[in-house]
Amino acid sequence: MRKYEVMVILDSDVDDRQVQPTIDGHLKTVTDEGGTIDNIDVWGRRRFAYEINKKPEGIYAVIDLTCEPATVKELERLMAINEKVVRTKVLRPGK
């Protein structure tokens, strides 16, 4: 098991009440595979430095999790095909 930090940017059209359920739906993949969710930090709406998909802002969230490499790869794949997710970035934090 390895620790990962996942940055997710959701579309600004997503209602604030739907942010947490949207993220939790994807994180079910991690828990089903035996991983753990260590922390979810929703930053809220932030302006982009440049427009993405003709939108000036998005909803940012940072998720700390522990899981196998194959699980985080599947999580990233599922987020890529979701239309509500604008961008994702998966990092392995330094020691």
From TrEMBL:
GO biological process: translation
Keywords noted in UniProt: Ribonucleoprotein, Ribosomal protein, RNA-binding, rRNA-binding
Record has Ribosomal protein as a keyword: yes
Lineage top rank: taxon: Bacteria
Signal sequence coordinates: none
Gene Ontology molecular function, alphabetical: small ribosomal subunit rRNA binding; structural constituent of ribosome
The keyword 4Fe-4S is annotated on this UniProt entry: no
GO cellular component: cytoplasm; ribonucleoprotein complex; ribosome
Family annotation (SUPFAM superfamilies): Ribosomal protein S6
Membrane spanning stretches: none
NCBIfam families membership: S6 (TIGR00166)
Family indicated by similarity: Belongs to the bacterial ribosomal protein bS6 family.
Function: Binds together with bS18 to 16S ribosomal RNA.
Record protein name field: Small ribosomal subunit protein bS6
Source organism per UniProt: Candidatus Avipropionibacterium avicola
